[in-house]
């Protein structure tokens, strides 16, 4: 395996159990508190979720004669940890380019126009077999993204013609919700192509949305009687400061007909080619993550009167599909963990990590192409660590608390189940390059255990040779590499699993966390 012995040595330093008389003087104190006071409300199931680019969905899911078992295995791994498979939203920019063509003999005919985007096709036809991909990932529930941007009479006819195929493919207990339009707040300004005139405003968007969703629901009712046709996520805006805003959109009557069940917003921490973007300053920076999420929380709070859950239906590190060396590095895995748990702690009810074939921020590449090799990517390990920290969500009683720490390279969280401490997460985002000649350091955190916890706890680590690497990550000594067992979990020889830690001082656990790694501490509490 690619994991070095150095890591094993570092990891083992936490498991020595010397009883000290005093807390180690340099230790940072993590105090989760005995109760979930200050934690989020209950986190719904499938909190760790994905959004898959519309044009990449056939590659991620495969089809009935050739299902993508690798994708399915990676989704099953997350189900083992959080209780259910990730929900998947199928959409993104390309949902608003795709038009249905009943005579197309293949699932998708896409033509890339590099001046629009080199990463995904701009001209897209989908054929009847596109919808087979909804049948290859058993147990996954989907949000299907319909095209809002293409608005000629014939475009609308092609959209409505696709509806019976979509609803039949989603008639197997696999429908979560419907969506119409991706990031309409960018329709007037998108660098990939302007989709609406300057005059397009919130009221115009709401009128279009109401009209078309009503028409789609009519077709669903006819073609798929008995299937819910009323559950929509909206407005799926690309950000909080674009040319349409959430508050006037809702005020213009987005939910006047009661179709919307979730408020959907999209978020990226920064842009792939924005000046000044760096691993340490942008992703391995809890302050940056907090500020970015807090802007979404402000929008959520401003919509409180609508009493609907708020999700990030599409999100990831850096927009424009991520930056090489940043979004695909192990540092991005640490960012994934910090970002997801911070969202959870702020009552953002689900985080759909976006991915597409060849994207830099993807959790896995589903097929080999000229631009990318099929395989599990570092960010996936951040998704695994998040699911492990939350544990089984099916009871509906898991809550997450953010623990404020002084350094912007530190993040801490406590997870409670039925009011009892389930896990404590420590993310150390001090950069460390695998090629560095400096010895990798670590920091000690003193975790205060509430009364009711025994003196034993288990530590599971998110580790790799450095924050800059793109390979060699593990969680709790397990690799999900494609080459080992098609993405199924494989224990890496020599790596620690479920390390024991015992109370060192006055109800406190001392946990060493190497630079550029995270620890999920699982105490035994009642
Ligand atoms: C639909 O696909 C068929 C078969 O590839 C093609 O001949 C036809 O031109 C397409 N129709 C449209 C409207 O693009
Ligand atoms: C199913 O996927 C395989 C492998 O990508 C492909 O060769 C085949 O044409 C697909 N079938 C349909 C009906 O699209
Ligand atoms: C795919 O689209 C291109 C144009 O974008 C067209 O030339 C080609 O014939 C299409 N292929 C099929 C099978 O429809
Ligand atoms: C439809 O889109 C075009 C741009 O593609 C725009 O000029 C037109 O105003 C749109 N129609 C409506 C009703 O929004
Ligand atoms: C949608 O708009 C069209 C054109 O303005 C109109 O004829 C139709 O009745 C509307 N449909 C609904 C369901 O609002
Ligand atoms: C971390 O993010 C904050 C907020 O964006 C910023 O002020 C700070 O400079 C960043 N840290 C580094 C080292 O770039
Ligand atoms: C790690 O390597 C990158 C790229 O070579 C460099 O920019 C960065 O400063 C290095 N970080 C550390 C902590 O050495």
From TrEMBL:
Family matches, as InterPro entries: GH (IPR017853), GH79_Enzymes (IPR052974), GlcAase_C (IPR031728)
The protein's name: Beta-glucuronidase C-terminal domain-containing protein
Domain of life (superkingdom): Eukaryota
Record has Signal as a keyword: yes
A Pfam family reported for this protein in Swiss-Prot or TrEMBL: Glyco_hydro_79C
Alphabetical list of PANTHER family matching this protein: BETA-GLUCURONIDASE, BETA-GLUCURONIDASE C-TERMINAL DOMAIN-CONTAINING PROTEIN
Domain Beta-glucuronidase C-terminal: 412-520
Keywords attached to this entry: Signal
Signal peptide span: 1-16
């Amino acid at each position: 395996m690619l994991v070095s012995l150095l890591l094993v040595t570092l990891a083992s330093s936490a498991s020595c159990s010397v009883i000290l008389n005093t807390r180690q003087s340099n230790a940072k104190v993590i105090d989760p508190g005995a109760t979930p006071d200050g934690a989020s409300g209950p986190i719904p199931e499938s909190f760790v979720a994905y959004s898959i680019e519309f044009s990449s969905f056939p590659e991620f899911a495969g089809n009935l004669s050739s299902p993508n078992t690798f994708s399915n295995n990676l989704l099953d791994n997350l189900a083992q940890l959080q209780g259910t498979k990730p929900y998947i939203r199928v959409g993104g920019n390309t949902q608003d380019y795709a038009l249905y063509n009943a005579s197309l003999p293949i699932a998708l005919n896409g033509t890339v126009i590099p001046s629009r985007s080199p990463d995904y096709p701009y001209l897209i036809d989908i054929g009847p077999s596109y919808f087979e991909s909804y049948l290859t990932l058993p147990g996954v529930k989907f949000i299907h993204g319909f095209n809002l941007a293409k608005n000629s009479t014939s475009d609308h006819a092609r959209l409505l013609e696709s509806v019976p195929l979509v609803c039949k493919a989603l008639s197997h207990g696999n429908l979560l919700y419907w969506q119409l339009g991706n990031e309409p707040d960018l329709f007037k300004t998108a660098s990939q192509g302007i989709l609406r005139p300057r005059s397009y405003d919130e009221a115009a968007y709401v009128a279009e949305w109401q009209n078309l969703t009503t028409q789609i629901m009519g077709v669903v009712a006819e073609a798929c009687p008995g299937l819910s046709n009323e559950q929509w996520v909206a407005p799926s805006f690309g950000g909080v400061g674009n040319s349409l805003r959430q508050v006037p959109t809702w005020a213009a009557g987005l939910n006047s007909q009661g179709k919307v069940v979730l408020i959907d917003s999209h978020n990226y921490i920064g842009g792939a080619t924005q000046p000044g973007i760096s691993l340490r300053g942008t992703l391995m920076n809890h302050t940056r993550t907090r500020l970015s999420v807090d802007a979404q929380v402000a929008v959520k709070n401003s919509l409180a009167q609508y009493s609907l859950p708020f999700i990030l239906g599409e999100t990831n590190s850096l927009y424009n599909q991520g930056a090489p060396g940043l979004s695909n590095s192990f540092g991005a895995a640490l960012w994934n963990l910090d970002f997801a748990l911070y969202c959870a702690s702020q009552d953002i009810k689900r985080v759909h990590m976006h991915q597409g074939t060849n994207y830099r921020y993807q959790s896995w590449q589903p097929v080999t192409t000229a631009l990318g090799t099929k395989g599990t990517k570092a960010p996936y390990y951040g998704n695994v660590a998040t699911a492990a920290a939350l544990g089984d969500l099916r009871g509906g009683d898991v809550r997450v608390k953010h623990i404020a720490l002084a350094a912007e390279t530190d993040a801490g969280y406590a997870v409670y189940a039925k009011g009892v401490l389930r896990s404590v997460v420590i993310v150390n985002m001090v950069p460390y390059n695998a090629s560095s000649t400096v010895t990798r350091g670590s920091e000690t955190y003193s975790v205060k255990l509430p009364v009711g916890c025994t003196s034993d706890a288990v530590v599971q680590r998110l580790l790799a040779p450095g924050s800059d690497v793109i390979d060699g990550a593990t969680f709790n000594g397990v690799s999900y590499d494609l080459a080992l067992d098609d993405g199924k979990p494989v224990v890496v020889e020599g790596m620690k699993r479920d390390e024991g830690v015992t109370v060192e001082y006055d109800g406190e656990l001392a946990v060493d966390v190497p630079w550029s790694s995270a620890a999920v501490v699982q105490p035994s509490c009642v």
